């Protein structure tokens, strides 16, 4: 299952997400997008646990003697009454003269001690001379051992000085708590899966649904075939690891893309189940998500599931009840009526079968209203498939923020379980899963902020502060299911500069710059470090350029040294390669990178105005979408048709995308490229009008009723406008909207007012368009006519090569009347009165050539 019904299209200089290979069978995920784009605050706060940190949070913990610690330095005299837990006790030292530790499995005794009579319940008592763990069942006793482990050990694995005297009475709120490996993209490696299974056991998660979308033997076309021998062996090893950790291994099959509702395919399905049964699988799931065609028939799905329940589950005798994922797994597109599939399941599907649901949209908060809506139709508590922290729709992010968006008023009557669909980065998903485990065990007590603080120390105890710096700035997705990020950081506009705030922000960028090295030095988990490394590299660069931007701000505000400012300004600009690297591994997207982009733009704009002597035409993106005011809109104005602004959420009635020209002016030509390409893209307004306005309130239509047009060109008598927009007309389309180019009054060789000669004269215009966002890279000779009356030129360039840029000034007869060698980014040329033409020779990026 995807966490958006379409992959979010981001900048093409970053990882541009299109339909994945696993979806190439024709199912159009992009037709069903509807992620919301608002950001909610993170509930909870950090708590001082006085050194007693247990995850998940116990239901009842009574510290009977607050100032007393029980020493266990001699070891433990272990009495495992049922002989079940030798494998689970390897973390402690045994000794005959050690403190007595008794582990028992006794449902009646556990219930008498106050636990809720559910699987996984236990009591743990620590007295001065003995420790007792009593499990309601075998799993409960194992969980009691995990609690003892956490009480004994520091996060770095070293032993504490002693154990507190206490009694814990504990049980899980939800019967099913765990993870579904259900993302698109690279499945986890075998070693990462084994690591995760151990992690789940230690944190009392009991469910692992194995259903990687890119496992060909899980889905079409090979679901009917047996696993190759080596892969089958690995699955058996996963099952054994799950048994050791009391995790139910649930093998899922995804046959709906090409299943035939006949006896042959029924037998194929049963045969595959028997093959998996022989490998040790005792829990099964059938997924009908992300398909179309005959496989979506809910009546046929019900018949299949009910028949399998009788002829396979019940016939085997040791197989758990089935779990299914419906095609209508989100309220967004589910038929809410009695004729809808959910209601059909409620009336006809065997009540033992658990039904997955992702909520109001594919990536959703878990709320009571959501579950009430579902449960009233399926006639049982739903099974929540939470698409977090999965990023298969936005692979340029590694989500490390708090685990939140989960209603703490729910009970097992509202939902039978919760599974998280994580990232393809399994180790980096542990921080979120630490929170999922905590929530599903003790819902009312769940404190997202505190859990996050505890989780970071659990995962990276020797580099917790550096990890926290990285994690607090690595939470947002920019579009879709957004998460809070950088909530402790204050940024500002250049116009609101405050020296104290600027210094504090510089300090934070300094911490950002230094955090990756500290993490690399202190992180003991090599696989986690490997997963994070590309993001850490870019995080370091973000810190560096953020610090330099603040230092530049100080130079800019002094306004004393134009050359110094410009020379350092161009050094701090991101190169196309640097931008592409960042876009592929993003962090700091909510505050830090926008601060850098905005202050660099604002300083550049102010400096350009100072150089030109007036405010030239400057484009600014506007629109109805929430991200229309972000730096993403700059991609419409960079004269690069391979980059684009994307709305990031589905389009709806009255949506629009446009440009603010900064002031009212004569507009006589408009050129727009919609979509991510002009061939078969789905992200565009397929029914649209082109409109203009002088005040942003009253709009006049220039072109109406345009249907399925990627390319829109208008030219005519000048109109007075400050704003120009594309306005969505009636349409059934729900895709994102994207615009590659939005050009108003494009500069042309025949309207610039002087002659230009270059290898590509049209592109050379970017050196004279009075826009720093567009540049011209000269690699040979650029010649331009000197406009009469010009006394000097200011050249704003990148760093010239070692040989510099040679300047030759010619009179109208072609005779040389002056010259120079340019070696720095900021240069000013005095123009002789008889100069008619200037030639620049050399390789250099030219931002602007400004005549005065």
Describe the structure.
Strand 4 (122-126) and strand 5 (130-135) form a beta hairpin. The strands form 5 sheets. The protein has an 8-stranded parallel β-barrel with strand order 7-8-9-10-11-12-13-14. The longest helix has 33 residues, at 526-558. With 852 residues, it is an alpha/beta fold. It has 5 domains: 60-170, Chitobiase, domain 2; 176-449, TIM Barrel; 494-612, Methane Monooxygenase Hydroxylase, Chain G, domain 1, CATH 1.20.58; 620-744, Galactose-binding domain-like (Jelly Rolls, Sandwich); 756-851, Galactose-binding domain-like (Jelly Rolls), CATH 2.60.120. Helix 11 crosses helix 12. The chain contains 17 helices and 30 strands. The model is unreliable at 3-35 (pLDDT under 50). The protein starts with 59 loop residues before the first strand and ends with a strand. InterPro entries: FA58C, Galactose-bd-like_sf, GH, Glycosyl_Hydrolase_84, Hex-like_dom2, HEX_bac_N, NagJ-like_helical, O-GlcNAcase_cat. Belongs to the glycosyl hydrolase 84 family. Keywords: Glycosidase, Hydrolase, Signal. It comes from Candidatus Bacteroides avicola. This is Beta-N-acetylglucosaminidase domain-containing protein.
Could you give a quick summary of the protein structure above?
InterPro entries: FA58C, Galactose-bd-like_sf, GH, Glycosyl_Hydrolase_84, Hex-like_dom2, HEX_bac_N, NagJ-like_helical, O-GlcNAcase_cat. The protein has 852 residues and is α/β, with parallel strands linked by helices. The strands form five sheets. It has an eight-stranded parallel barrel.
